Structure formats: structure tokens, C-alpha cells
Amino acid sequence: MSLPALTPRTATAVPVTLSDGGTAALRPLEPDERAPLLEVFAGMSGQSRASRYLVPMPRLSEAYLRHLSATDGLAHVAWLATVAGRPAGIGRYAVTSEDPCAVEVALEVVDQHQRRGLGAVLLDAVTTVAAANGVRRLRATVLPGNEPSRRLLTRVAIPLRFEDGLLEGTAPLRLLDPARVDRHAVVELARRTTPAPCDAHWTAPCA
Which of 81, 98, 130, 178 is surrounded by the most beta carbons within 10 Å? Predict the structure, then answer.
């Protein structure tokens, strides 16, 4: 699955209209950028944190924070959604250790902005970047009671099965239909902000 190359512009965020008519802005997290991670985490209830991290998570340890902020725009991608200038959610993917052409996707949205369509927006952004990077398969793991995530994953055709008390699934990469973001703008911004020498050296994880 490929997306067309675009002429670079100067935009630093991609505007998005939410399902309730509100607006948000999307941009990649910079490598080692921690403040938005902490603000989104602080805005999530204990239940929301458990849904995201699969276990109770009262705080982010230094080691975990270092891991989450170690993005590179290729093998580990994270996109931030802001509403009125404040962090509201993060979507990410990371290449799996056993399959360089597969990525694990994860989403988190602060409680205040849940049920506004931000999860779908973030999923569309990170899967669009994954497609542009040459990723071929998506993986996801969710708690059985996480109905919003289960419904969202069915929209990208990830079948879920019970495995050790969790729901897990893998499927060929498929984008949301209809699109929830301007995919051309997302790819353009991703390529301009990835720390690579130039677009000519853009390297897909499974090339």
C-alpha cells in the first residue's frame, strides 16, 4: 500500500474535524519529548490507564517514559492530538521484534475528550504513516472489556482472539474507510519531521 509523494509545505500540524464538530490538531511527537506524554497520562482515569497499558498503571516509571519517548518516525512512531492547544491523545505504533513488517498499535485519549472520535483519528494517522513506511501487518492487544477499542479494531479488520486473558489479533494493514484525516498532509508532515538525512534516504522498516 503506497501513498503519493508530496511537495513539502510549512505546516507543523494537521487539522482535524472531530465527530462532534470540534477540532483537533495532529503532529508527530519529537524524539525524547516527554511533556505531552505526562499530560495525557495525567488526564486519564485509572480505568483508562489500565485499558491502555493492560495493567493498573498509577504512574509512568522513568524507564517506561524513556521507552515511550524514544520515537524515530520509522520503527517507533507516535502522533499527538491536541485540542485547544492541550494534549488530548496519543496514537503510536512500534515494529514487533519477531516481524519487521508488522507493528503493534496503541491509542490513548484523556477522559475529557473520549467519545469524540479521537481514537479513530489517531488510528488513521498512525496507520497512514505505517502504510507510507512500508509496514504490511497490524497487531493489537486489548482488554476484553475495552469495547471502544474492540469496535475500532474491527474497522481495520483485525480479528481478535482470547490469549492469556487478553484479546490479540494480527491482520494485513488496512486503512479506515472513510478516512478520518488528510492522509496526504499526514504523510508530508511525517516525512518532513522524521530525523533522516533526506527524503531520498527514507527507509521502510521491512524494506
Answer: 81
